Amino acid sequence: MNLSNKVIWITGASSGIGEAIVYALAKENCKLVISARRIEELNRVKAKTKLSDDNILVLPIDLEQHQNAKDWTKKVTDKFNRIDVLINNGGISQEGFALNTSAEVEKKIMNINYFGNVALSKAVAPIMQQQKSGRIAIITSIAGKFGQAGLSTYSASKHALYGFYDSFRLELKKDNISVLLVSPGFINTNVTLNAVTGDGSTFNKNSPAQENGMKADVFARKFIRTLKSNNNHKYIGSKELLAVPFKTFFPNIFYNLIYKMSNKKK
Predict the structure, then answer these.
(1) Hey, is 163 helix, strand or coil?
(2) Phi, psi of 12 (to 5 degrees)
(3) Residue 68: helix, strand or coil by DSSP?
(4) CA atoms of 218 and 16, how far apart (whole Å)
(5) CA-wise closest residue to 102 among 245, 220, 199
(6) Of 1, 119, 197, 247, which residue is the least packed, with the fewest Cβ within 10 Å?
C-alpha cells in the first residue's frame, strides 16, 4: 500500500506507540488525523510533525465515550472528505489481580480497549465501503494470545479484539477493505506507568520489561513497513514473542513458567 496522499487516522496519538507512529507517518507525505484525550499533548505532537494545518487534524476523543464514534468520524470527513487508513491504537493497561478489581474498572477497560476500538472501526468502515478501499490496523498485544496474572481484563480485551477483527476482516474483504492486527511485545513506553489498578487509581510505576523493551521509534518503523504490506497479522517485538509458539507447542511447561513468574508479583 502506497501511503502518499492517504488520509490516516491514528488514535492514542499523544504518547508511546501512537506518538511514534505519527512521526513516522509524517515522513510519508500523507494527511494525518491524530486523536487522544489530551488536546495539549496532541498539539505538542502536531507541532513536532511540522505539518501544515491543511495536512493534519487534531481531534480529541475519549474512547470510553464510544457512542460518539460517528460524530468523530464526520469531523474527519468534513476536513478531508475520505479516510484511507484507521490505526486503532488507543487503549489502557491494567495492574491488579482479578479478585481485587472492581466491576467498574473492568467495564472501563473493556469500554476503552474493546467497545471503543470496535465502535470507531464500525463508524469508519462505511466510509471505506463507499470508497471501495481502505485499511484498518489494530494494535493489540501478545497479551491477546495468553493471559498473565494481574492482567485479566486487559488480556480479555485484547483476546476479544482478535475474535472480532478476524471475523470483520472476512465481512469487509468484498469491499476491498483490509484488516491488519499487530501484536507488540514489550515496547519502551509508559503504558504500565499509566495502567489502572483494581480500585481505579493509576499504577504510577513502570515495569522492567517495558523499560528494557523495543524503542517506540523502532517499533513505528517496523509497523509502517507492515502497514504497507498485504499482511493480515504481525508480531513486533523481541525475544518475548517466543512465548507465543512456546505456549502452542509446550502448553504445560509454558503455564508452569507463567505461574512461577506470577508468584513474583504477589
Answers:
(1) helix
(2) 65, 35
(3) helix
(4) 12
(5) 199
(6) 1
- Alpha helices by DSSP H, 111-151: 117-131
- C-alpha 115/C-alpha 131 separation (Å) is 25
Whole-angstrom distance, CA of residue 48 vs CA of residue 210: 24
Q: What contacts 24+ positions apart, CB below 8 Å, involve 193-197? A: 194/92, 194/93, 195/92, 195/93, 195/94, 195/95, 195/154, 196/92, 196/93, 196/94, 196/95, 196/96, 196/105, 196/108, 196/109, 197/94, 197/95, 197/96, 197/105
Cell numbers standing for residue 13: 496519538
Which residues are known to be catalytic? 154
Q: Position 261: which residue type?
A: M
Query: Which residue is it, cell 504500565?
Result: 192
Give DSSP secondary structure letters for 164-229: HHHHHHHHHGGGTEEEEEEEE-SEESSTTTT-EETTS-B-----HHHHTSEEHHHHHHHHHHHHHS
* 3-class secondary structure, 87: strand
For each of the chain's 266 residues, which pLDDT tens digit applies?
Answer: 999 999 999 999 999 999 999 999 999 999 999 999 999 999 999 999 999 999 999 999 999 999 999 999 999 999 999 999 999 999 999 999 999 999 999 999 999 999 999 999 999 999 999 999 999 999 999 999 998 899 999 999 999 999 999 999 999 999 999 999 999 999 998 777 788 999 889 887 877 777 778 999 999 999 999 999 999 999 999 999 999 999 999 999 999 988 887 765 54
